[in-house]
Structures are given as structure tokens and as C-alpha cells.
């Protein structure tokens, strides 16, 4: 498969200042191909922080047709172990030492350690799969989405064409999301390189991240100000942070022309406020099963609040019984051969606007999507809480919010200290995006007579949300970020 960055394309490391032009990119990609092929790598797994080397390995595997699985850093040890057991990679690239009896160090190259991994019986992978991208999954078991190389590049080319209608000149994109995030991988790296642009990468520390959470927003703001990018890709929670910063005096870089936001619901009010503050935000919509982006708004930012825009040129979509369906072949999930399909039923309720754009109105399934774009099945966490032996009833909250909270009921002889300890113990078993940050203790249990339970004991979620609206609101009250001094 051919992937040739345009002649003016460059990779830039924000931390070290290292710059690779198009010819250097191609040379390093060829070197990585020779290395991986010399060790006869069939299944390569990549666990590393965002860097130029991460991108070069990714491009080497893409162009050589080597199966690559980049694992996100937010997976828990249990989740990662489960993925490795199913995938059984024969080569493992990491930016830190691996303590695994099944692994033997082969060499170190450009900050990455290459290990040979002893392989047991591996799960069959769908024919044509070049990359397996793991989503957070709606339960504790992440799903591996199988993607073809051509499918990824089709999306990148379509995005390149769409963004060229909005942005001027060559792209200058700053990667803020972790590179294993498929949206950043394809829209933030492939598309700008194909357009002859600059792609700027920075480590988690420089971006102010720990795992999937932004812990130092000042670092992120300083990075954006220093790099003066033309484009960014954000999840809603990061957009909220930028809006808060701009309100408090942070100067929005004049260089910014295009900020794509997606991954979870974005309120129209937030989009309008962002546009008024000079943040040129455009909504997008997509899912990993379709190679990331499906639609992207292309109007001026202040008007990009009504819909997620028109489908990309490479995507044919329709609405069936109110559900958005993407007519594209799906290779399936790792280990689930029956999941392959010619159409992707998204589970999202949609409608067409008068202007011909797509409007997403909700989800058909009972699923929480936090404002960082992570999918969380509430039953998964609720079961872990009630299995503690301390908590009798639990309802998880957190849709379109930066973190999860819960309504909990425990017997009267359980003290508040014991309840808090039980929650903390459960949190230690969960990945960070699913932990319960705050909770409200109920004085009385849910029950059918209140309308909060069905007769067979299932939660009536909408009724509970109405009944405890004020308590739920209090759980999410207060700013997530403290911006004590805003960089100019």
C-alpha cells in the first residue's frame, strides 16, 4: 500500500524540536519496514506515548500491510492482559521495559524497545485487516475493531478534501489526543501529511495528561499558545476547558482556523460560546467501525451547531427506522467472526436537517458516553458496586460529563466511611474513565411504588433522574479545572 506524504509534509516533536521533512519521513518508514520484516512480524502491538517514532512505526505497518494494534494508555492492566491474550502479537514495541516472561528484547531503536513475544494459539483475524483499534468498550472488555488500510486512507483523503474548503494553505496540526485514538490517528496525522502539512506531536507530560485525563490544563494551554497551530481535534471536555480559559483571559491563537470536536454529545450553547470567543469549532461525527469520521460540518463556526454536517465523500449513509446506518463494509471485531457486515448500524438516532446535514438526537441503546468520548455501560460499574457487599443499589451517572458519579443505597448500619471505602475499593478495579468520582447516598431504596424500579427490579433511569434531579446536579457542580493564572 502506498502512502506518500506530500513534499512539504513535516513531522515536528514539540518537546525536542526534532523535525523530519518528507524525504526523512519516507527514509525512516522504510527503515522500520526492514526491521519489522526482518523479524517476520505478523502481528505487532505498540504501547507508547505520542511521538514521532510512534507515527513512523504506524506508517511503516500501514504501507507494508503489517497488522498493527496500537493500545491506548488508559487501559487497565487487566484489560491490556486480556487484549494480549486474544491478539497474541509476535512483536511488541514499547517505550518502557516490559516485565513479561513471554518477551525477549531484540533491539532498541529511536526510543522504542522491540520485543519478540512467544505466541500461543491466536484468535483469527478477519481477512484484509491491517489495524486493530481498541475502543474503551461499553464494559470492562475493550472491543478490537478490525480495519483495512484502504478504509483508513479513504477517510483521510475525504477529510483532506473537506478541510481544504475551510482552512487556508497547508495544514499545521497539533495532536492533542493520544495517537492510539483513531480520530487523531487518521484525521490528525494521515490527512495533514497527505495535504503536505505539518503534524506536531507532544508527550502526555507536555500535553498535561495522565492516562486519559487532563490533569494540568495550564500545560495544554501553553503548548497551544507556543505552537500556534491551524487545527486541533478535541473531545467535548477539552473544548469546555478551552472555553473556560478564553473566558478567563487566555488569548486564542490567531493561527487557529479549524477545531474539530466529536466523540460525544456537544451542546449547541457550548458551540455558540466557543465561536463567540474566537474558537473556530466544527462538529463531527464518527465511530471506529467506520474508520472514524463519517460526517463533518463545513459551515462557519457560529452556524455549526445544528448538525454534525454532511457525510464525507467516501461515506454513504441512510436513516432506517430512525437509526443512522452507514453503508460500508465492516470487517468485524477481533474474535467475533460473525460481527462482519456490509452495513454498520450505529445505534444512534438521527434525522436530516433542512440544509441536508445530519442531526444526531440520541442513542438507541442504554449507554453513557462521557465528555472525553469514552463509552461506559452503567450496568458494568453498577454490578461492581453492588457486588462489594456493602452497596445494595447503585445507579451510575455521567453521560456527556467529564467523570462518573452515582446514586447509592446502603443499609443503615453501614457508616458513611464504610460506604466511601467500598466505592474506593471498587474504583481500584476500574479504568480511570469509569471510576466513581462522587456519589450521593440515598435515604431510601429505589422501589416500584416510587416508580424508580420495574416490577422485576430494573432501574427506571429516566424516572430516577427526574426524582433526584437536584441531587444529581449537585454531584456535577463546580468547575473541573482551576485556571489560576492563564498564559498569554
In short:
With 488 residues, the protein is of the alpha/beta class. It is built from 13 helices and 27 strands. It is globular, with a radius of gyration of 23 Å.
* CATH architectural designation of the largest domain: 3-Layer(aba) Sandwich
**Total strand segments:** 27
> How much of the polypeptide forms β-strand, as a percent range?
15-25%
The total of helices stands at: 13
Cα(first) to Cα(last) distance is 44 Å
Shape: globular
Largest sheet: 5 strands, mixed
Oligomer: single chain
Count of discrete domains: 2
Mean pLDDT rating: 90
Describe the structure.
The protein is of the alpha/beta class and 488 residues long. It has 2 domains: 1-364, Rossmann fold (3-Layer(aba) Sandwich), CATH 3.40.50; 377-475, GMP Synthetase, Chain A, domain 3 (2-Layer Sandwich), CATH 3.30.300.30. Helices cover 29% and strands 24% of the residues. The protein contains 13 helices and 27 strands. Helix 1 packs across helix 2 (52-64) and helix 4 crosses helix 5 (182-194). The two termini are 44 Å apart.
Give the SSE map:
Blueprint (H helix, E strand, L loop, with lengths): L9 E4 L5 E3 H17 L4 E5 L4 H13 L2 E4 L6 H11 L3 E4 L8 E7 L2 E6 L13 E4 L9 E4 L1 H16 L7 E3 L7 H13 L3 E4 L2 H4 L1 E2 L2 E2 L2 H11 L3 E4 L1 H12 L10 E4 L6 H9 L4 E7 L4 E5 L13 E2 L5 E4 L2 E4 L17 E9 L5 E6 L4 E2 L5 E2 L1 H9 L6 E5 L6 E6 L6 H12 L8 E6 L19 H7 L1 H7 L13
Parallel strand pairs: 1-11, 3-4, 3-5, 10-11, 14-15, 15-16, 26-27
Antiparallel strand pairs: 1-2, 5-7, 6-7, 8-9, 12-13, 16-17, 17-18, 19-20, 20-21, 21-22, 23-24, 25-26
